[in-house]
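Case 653 in the screening queue. Each case pairs one protein sequence with one candidate compound; here the compound is 6R9. For every case the pipeline is the same: read the inputs, emit a complex structure as tokens, and attach any notable structural observations.

Predict complex for case 653.
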Amino acid sequence: MSEPSDALSALLHESRRFSPPPELAQRANAQPGIYAEANADPVAWWEEQARRLSWATPWDRALEWDLPFAKWFVGGKLNVAVNCVDRHVDAGLGERVAFHWEGEPGDTRTITYADLQKMVCRAANALTELGVTAGETVAIYMPMIPETVVAMLACARLGAPHTVVFGGFSADALRGRILDCDARTVITADGGYRRGAPSALKPAVDVAVADCPGVRRVLVVRRTGQDVGWNDARDVWWHDVVDRQADTHTAEMFDSEHPLYIMYTSGTTAKPKGILHTSGGYLTHVSATHRLIFDVKPESDVFWTAADIGWVTGHSYIVYGPLANATTSVMYEGTPDTPGRDRWWQIVERYKVNILYTAPTTIRTFMKWGPELIEGHDLSSLRLLGSVGEPINPEAWIWYRHHIGGDRCPIVDTWWQTETGGILITPLPGITATKPGAAMVPFPGISAAVVGEDGTPVKPGNGGYLVITQPWPGMLRGIWGDPERYRETYWSRFEGCYFAGDGAKLDEDGDIWLLGRVDDVMNVSGHRISTTEVEHALVGHPSVAEAAVVGANDATTGQAIVAFVTVKGGVADDPASGERLVVDLRDHVAREIGPIAKPRQILLTPELPKTRSGKIMRRLLRDVADNRELGDVTTLLDPTVVNAIKDRMTTGG
Ligand code: 6R9
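Case 653 output:
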């Protein structure tokens, strides 16, 4: 990883810079002095952020650091749900809208902070009646409906850690998570709406809990009205048990380090890791990042994280961060193409969304669909755009800025992980002159570095691994039930540092560019080539909508590059034009990066396999490329996609 290759240097010498709009800069929540202030004493700076929350008992020590185990705001007590809801009602903000919710079929609900308080109190009373106590885990397997937020907050209120399992995960995946964290209660719904049809959830729960003897109760929200199987001894309807409860509830205060949630995430092995987050530090981190990075003015802004709550982005930037800041958010149940491909733009227009946060993969989907879908809508309310989930290629960044942001909205490309709890590397919208494709700099109070194999920081202009060198409040507190794996996975590669698993480059100005997971770095004939780099080259070709590149095993070169490509406007039917395009693309990559990066094989395919959080499942594509049995597909959004790709592979694409 010493010398950047040609394409990467092209990326790094990307000369476009976008300065903050002056009016935004002037009024921004984060002003230029913030970095110096935080650098002078990062822990004190975080304490200042923590003081914006409401604590029943103040902390005695801000940080206890027994590497790799951190405790923040030790001795402090608070209740996360009270911080997210009750204190705003107490401050006279009960009438402020917490959520403009929209169901996929077009039904809507407006939920104020006063409404939310009552809903959470009722749910907390109901969970108590069902035997949930502090410290006992609750699994939540729900569609994107307000009850999902209510269930999470009710758990937080009771000190019962939740584990939200994405509603599209299989029964197997759900069972594994319930067993791993020993959940006794499952909260679910009959189903939710996706792509214009009800999609069932309860049957998967039935299958999952059949093998979970610890599960006492299944609480079911009625959303679609589908028929559901019923076990009288175990299942209860939400409307039967929650609706009749008192709408007040006295909240207990918990230690700052009380577990708040466990979120499972896939690592390099087959078994997902239960990432543990706790209360005071996490809430401090997500509320501070939300306020400063998205520049949220809660009295006037409408904020929309267009992600699923079953993903960490939903936890931190739909639920905990925005609510801690008394923000008005949009929450949407369904897919962006239902009933039409302009659904999101209707929503932005209808609720006058000011800040939109989404993933590059979605942006590239919109690119594929074409800007005409956007042009009929008034998006002038937007003033800030965010990106998360994977490196954003400059083309998508520029497209986002131009077609969605009307060339006036700053883009914050935010790097973080399930493990980090909240954003760590990001521009600040009123301060940073951004570069398309770069996540730029550590957030105030965060110490990060790009290091080489030997753990020493690289010089500007070089690549290496991203590490975090000091503890931060939102950091994971461990892997549920496996402290050794925690140490081993994150703290053993570079001494004293958190190893994120991402490759990064430091440019000549000292700004950080994320290059994707290091396990996605290919080694072709001894040359290191980043998958992102080849993808970047492919996506730069006018015909390409999206590209995923994997390193396949190759007897001669170690690894060989295999690219899976979706084409703008779809693949033409006649094989000849497909073949011509493949030749053209290989030459294009060779031209952009060099002959070494020329893919051995390029497959034109209608779709790429993605997780529900929008990440391309390169692991599966590697299996396909290597002609292996497919590994775990439980996290896949649409399992039929891989088989379609496999078929193309064997028939020669
Ligand atoms: C929030 C979230 C974490 C991994 C992370 C990295 C990739 C996320 C990114 C990004 C480049 C960004 N990632 N944001 N890469 N630029 N702005 O996505 O969490 O699902 O745990 O994924 O996603 O590779 O290591 P999670």
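Case 653 observations:
- The chain has 21 helices and 30 strands.
- The longest strand covers residues 544-554.
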